[in-house]
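Retro notes, item 3 of 5
We never archived the inputs for the pyridoxal-5'-phosphate complex last cycle. Fixing that now. Sequence and ligand:
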Amino acid sequence: MTFIVPLNAAADRPVPFIDLVPQFQSMSAEIMAAVERVFAEQKFILGDEVVALEEEIASYCDSRFAVGCNSGTDALIIALQALDIGEGDEVITTPFSFFATASSICRAGATPVFVDIDPATFNMDVDAIEDAITPHTRAIMPVHLFGQCCDMEPLWRLCQKYKLHIIEDACQAIGAEYQGRRAGVLGTVGCFSFFPTKNLGGAGDGGMMTTDDPELLAKLKRLRVHGDVGQYEHLELGMNSRLDALQAAVLRVKLRKLEDWSAARQANAQRYGEMFEQAGILDSITLPTVQDDNRHVYNQYCIRVKHGLRDHVMQQLRAAKIGCAVYYPKPLHLQTCFKHLGYELGQFPEAEAASKDILALPSYPELPAADQHRVVDCLVNICREMRQTQPVRRAA
Ligand SMILES: *Cc1c(COP(=O)(O)O)cnc(C)c1O
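Structure as it came back at the time:
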């Protein structure tokens, strides 16, 4: 008697949405050596490691300067404060982003003004911005969502015309490019996050701001240490938002691999696209759109599921132990804490539809090929089953 051994003996093993362990394992010796170096010196706050990382990130983004801080959220708040944006000022941004995009504006004392999104890229609808500009508008905060830059050229034009600043929320987009220029040099200040699941993730929280302006640099640096100019002289009401030397040391090791990881994320995206197309399920799902002259670095690989079917697909994937996630299930204009801003359901239909249709699939750089195949097989089966059970609408 012969047994047929399945090609993949563990065909139903769980596929995690993200797994950070293999990345660490691939470079644990270098990371631990960097950590030991910091411990040996016992210099934990700012210092040489942070300065070196700042220089390396500036060089990576082709920015003149970079300033480390405690998180991407703090980077946004400090950037706003450094530009004297606060009480009475408005900042135009997207309602379809991580919470910190809008909360940072409120934290700085200003008011977020939302505009709807482009359903193809999930980034801000740049054609909607001009109508949202008022005499109180001081800045635009585009988010390079999921790792793809917002269409910046129309923003540059508006900023010149109305004398506005651009604060890039590039927290998901380190290494992304627009017209050959990297995220972080597309506005007045660029803000990055080193949250562990970002494309360049630390061993905890961390953030960075980039700028070409030396005066702004000095202010960003002051604001991260209590507005201190030295000798306990305080020029502004800053905060304690320093980057730890430990984080910088770890991030410096990981930065050397960032290009490889971005390439791996792009390869995952490419393979997903080819396999879904080949399986003929593009009537049920929509692949991510990459705009011309953009380098998408896929912090998330997000598809759209045919309207009304996302939750079903998600449940089926989860039942098959396949990790997936929704970014973001509730647009920011509908969050309870922003009720006072006066927005209503229905006001940003594209953002609201995206929150119901979007689904992120596993796409971390080390995703094993067998796991990706399992995600595809499973999703393809779900889509085919849906097609059979759904009433087919016939032409009248
Ligand atoms: C992660 C993220 C932030 C906040 O970064 P933290 O480091 O977690 O504070 C802000 N905006 C966007 C779009 C993000 O994805």
